[in-house]
Automatic annotation (TrEMBL):
Region described as Disordered: spans on this chain: 259-285
PROSITE patterns xrefs: SAM_RNA_A_N6_MT
Organism encoding this protein: uncultured Sulfurovum sp
Protein name: Ribosomal RNA small subunit methyltransferase A
Annotated GO CC locations: cytosol
SMART domains, sorted: rADc
Cell compartment(s), UniProt: Cytoplasm
MF (Gene Ontology): 16S rRNA (adenine(1518)-N(6)/adenine(1519)-N(6))-dimethyltransferase activity; RNA binding
Keywords for the protein's UniProt record, in alphabetical order: Cytoplasm, Methyltransferase, RNA-binding, rRNA processing, S-adenosyl-L-methionine, Transferase
Taxonomy of the source species: Bacteria, Pseudomonadati, Campylobacterota, Epsilonproteobacteria, Campylobacterales
The enzyme's E.C. designation: 2.1.1.182
Similarity field: Belongs to the class I-like SAM-binding methyltransferase superfamily. rRNA adenine N(6)-methyltransferase family. RsmA subfamily.
Function of the protein: Specifically dimethylates two adjacent adenosines (A1518 and A1519) in the loop of a conserved hairpin near the 3'-end of 16S rRNA in the 30S particle. May play a critical role in biogenesis of 30S subunits.
Domain of life: Bacteria
Residues involved in S-adenosyl-L-methionine binding: N17, L19, G43, E63, D91, N111
Amino acid sequence: MIIDNLAEFASKKFGQNFLKSDIYLHKIIQAMPNDDLKVAEIGPGLGDLTKELVKVRNVTAFEVDKRLCEHLTSEFETPIHEGRFELKCGDVLERWESKSLLDESYHLVANLPYYIATNIILKAFKDEHCQSILVMVQKEVAVKFSASVKQKEFSSLSVLAQTVGKATLCFEVEPEAFVPAPNVTSAVLLIEKDTSQDDEKFEKFLKIAFAQPRKKLSKNLSSTFSKDIVNALFSKLELDSNLRPHEAETSTYHHIYNELKDNLDGNEQPKRKQSKSRERNTKKP
Ligand code: SAM
């Protein structure tokens, strides 16, 4: 496929910002876990990262854009023929609805479409076959996943990342490394999984705990659970009643959750009525 103007060709709808920097492509390959597991790539695009990946691993890639699927099928004819590369056309989130992305253990490596990056990472947390996640995302998202307790960026995403393993922001990537250049700085994030996290109720609990990140944790929890129960629990766990959400350790969240989860049926609405603007701004966990 000959593309005269890549910036015009790129589809905004599919979050296409093609990485056109050999330096960063190689840095991603160097940051990969050092073993022989298969790689799942989401959004191979024009295949620049894919070309580097198939040199070192067997790869299965998931691409939603039919124009790119045609291009990749011809570009990777040899590795497809040799069984080193498989291309699945369609929306990766649909595939993830019913089963693991791959039928065997794998590492996820991708320059993710930013509009669904957080969603994809949370799906990979749940997928038992996924052993690690090495992804290019918006820097802000990478910071949220990799923040440590007491840093102001420590969020529900940091708690979820620490629940499955260890998250590291590997390096930042400037907008000019992509065509078209995104409006934000990007970063490569590595999450090495020790376990999976498939408890949607825990995600809901964290949403409540971090609903207003600058308020007291006890206050956020009291929007859903009775104040008496929350106060009694803070005494039992010897927690400071002034604790802010970013100051509580991941293990503390698990302790609180274990005590409160039976009072959480999954359909909670905060007791206090939210203002319209806050409803619109409701964030993912
Ligand atoms: N890997 C390429 C690169 O580094 O240049 C392209 C990365 S681009 C940021 C994101 C890619 O994800 C695009 O190829 C886009 O078409 C694809 N994509 C977007 N939404 C998708 C989805 N729901 N399922 C599978 N692929 C998707």
